[in-house]
Amino acid sequence: MPRRKTRPGETRNTMAIEKSDTLHGRILEEFSRKIVDGTWPPGFSLPKETELADQYGVSRMTMNKVLTRLASDGFVIRRKRSGTVVAQPRAESAVLAINNIGEEVAALGRRYRWSLLSSERRSGNAQDRRILNLQEDDVASDCLFLQGLHYSNDEPFCLETRVINVATAPDAMTVDFEREVPGAWLLSTMPWTRARHHVRAINVSGRDAMLLELPVGAACLEVQRRTQIEENWVTCARLLYPGEAHQLIAEFDSKVGH
User: In 37-174, which ranges are continuous DSSP H helix?
Assistant: First the structure.
């Protein structure tokens, strides 16, 4: 690619900006990683902005940009007297917690109902892997595939598509999932040790739109969830919620008082 020509006197300033942007990204990534992996736990007080700037060899403006971004993303809280501290989670939404959908509906003061649409024991295919965010090895063997609708006052609340690993949860084959809600049954019988969530906004189409009684292209919230017991995966689920009726909320505060 040909190099852009610079005007006289421009080269030095341009290089300084590029270097600053690169350092900003690297510092932001390092700080975020330390917070996520627990190196900087909730309530941890970061050094002063000027000290961090000196430590990383950047301007105070660059370091302020990093800390401002961390604050806007909910990783830290900045206060004039107490400085910058790592935020403390206070309340979790469906992104972080594994909730019983029936209880979610009941909490809204509405009537809950579950309807099983399909149940099939088989190995997985490419479409299953795409919808459920699975690895090829996950569904190479025997699995139980389920799909059903959660209703709120007889209106579709959530479309659930789920696969259960029969090797890890063999009792699933004896359960009547027309009567038992799969997620609730798994929560009560298969205590997980690890969970992973992938959340995104999508525009619904095809059969999904029809089942949720939505127009094609309507906004939906998709939660893909995987739970494990030690190294063995138990279940992967795709929960599709009508977007206008749902939101995910996570609140944070710090251990430092006002």
Answer: 49-56, 60-72, 101-107, 126-132
Cα 75 from Cα 71, distance rounded (Å) = 6
Instruction: Specify the DSSP class assigned to residue 216.
Output: T
- The tens digit of pLDDT for each residue in 23-47 reads 788 898 899 888 888 889 887 899 9
Which structural domains are found in the chain, ordered by start? Answer: 11-90 (1.10.10.10), 101-245 (3.40.1410.10)
Asked whether the beta carbons of 231 and 258 are under 8 A apart, the reply is no
Task: Let me know if 169 is exposed, middle or buried by CB neighbors in 10 A (0-12, 13-18, 19+).
Answer: buried
Q: What is the pLDDT of residues 202-216, one digit of tens each?
A: 999 999 999 998 888
> Would you give the DSSP letter of residue 137?
G
Confidence at residue 255, expressed as pLDDT on a 0 to 100 scale? 47
Quick: pLDDT tens for 47-79.
999 999 999 999 999 999 899 888 877 788 776
Number of CB atoms found within 10 A of residue 45's CB: 15
Residue type, 59: S
The dihedrals phi and psi of 241, each to the nearest 5 degrees, come to: -110, 140
Burial code (b: 16+ CB inside 10 Å, e: under 16) for 5-35 equals eeeeeeeeeeeeeeeeeebbeebbeebbebb
